[in-house]
Amino acid sequence: MITRLSSLYEIPIIDLNTGTQLAEIKDFILDIKNEKLIGFITRNDLFLSFNNTKNLGRDFLSLDCEFSQEIFIDMPQYNHENLLLYPRDILKRPVITEEGKVLGIINDICLDVFSGSIESYEISDGLFKDILKGRAKIFLNQVTSYGNGVIVIKEKDALS
């Protein structure tokens, strides 16, 4: 199931063994180089690896482990050189072609909730065009570089 990352903010993290809410999702860490969701940052700034989750749905994230409190760790440092980013590092960035044509801005990140794979970026070209044509998507294999404040794609991959 593909979902927008923006729909997952503030959903509760539930221990399936006890039915207890352990935390809420505050943010995410993404590995852009490997196109994956690495994990979740909780409201109390702890980190939960995506690999330690049982199920990620639109209403809650579930854990199925006997010692679920022990899987939350201090938040790791992220590094732009390794392309480990928070979504806020990508959202609202302009998308341009190598020739300099501005296609719009990154409005959301589409994620496969079963595998944690980043499927695409949702591009907005303004409210009026979004209403008339809908939002376009670019896939990560179309991105040639993550520049200083912009995302660059090849002209042949430009949105029509």
Describe this structure as you would to a colleague.
InterPro entries: PRC-brl_dom, PRC_barrel-like_sf. Residues 86-153 form the PRC-barrel domain. With 160 residues, this protein is mainly beta. 4% of the residues lie in helices and 44% in strands. The protein contains one helix and 15 strands. It has one helix at 127-133, and strands spanning 2-4, 12-15, 20-31, 36-42, 46-49, 55-56, 61-63, 73-74, 84-85, 94-97, 102-112, 118-124, 136-138, 143-146, 151-153. The longest helix has 7 residues, at 127-133. The chain is elongated. It starts with a strand and ends in a 7-residue tail after the last strand.
Would you spell out the secondary-structure blueprint of this structure?
Blueprint: E1 2-4, E2 12-15, E3 20-31, E4 36-42, E5 46-49, E6 55-56, E7 61-63, E8 73-74, E9 84-85, E10 94-97, E11 102-112, E12 118-124, H1 127-133, E13 136-138, E14 143-146, E15 151-153
Pfam family, one: PRC
InterPro entries: PRC-brl_dom, PRC_barrel-like_sf
Domain PRC-barrel: 86-153
Provide tags for this entry.
single chain; 160 residues; mainly beta; SH3 type barrels; eight-stranded mixed beta sheet; seven-stranded mixed beta sheet; 44% strand; elongated
In short:
Pfam families: PRC. The protein is mainly β. It has 1 helix and 15 strands; from the N terminus they run E-E-E-E-E-E-E-E-E-E-E-E-H-E-E-E.
